[in-house]
What we know:
Elements: H1 5-9, H2 20-23, H3 27-30, E1 54-55, E2 58-59, H4 63-70, H5 74-83, H6 90-101
Antiparallel strand pairs: 1-2
Amino acid sequence: MKQNCWEFKKCGRELGGDKALDLGLCLAVIEISLDGIHDGEFGGRACWVLAGTKCNGDIQGTFAQKYKDCEKCDFYEYVKKQEGDDFLPTATLLKRIEAYNNL
């Protein structure tokens, strides 16, 4: 089974997670435009394109601010390796979010 970022990182910010009430839900858990990407739930397997997600307890900011760190992330590498040739380019993921937001 393919893990979503909150399962892999064990952050506890998913629905029903042990830190969700204190820290709030992670944006990856509620980003419906990316549901199904890389066989994940919501933005759970494309979190590197989502502004405002937290990593190691710090809010990562805009996509432009966080992406270089995300490219070095163990979860990013995990998804990239699992998906192989089916790994979607970041530009494709960003276009999907934009298209969804323009509906």
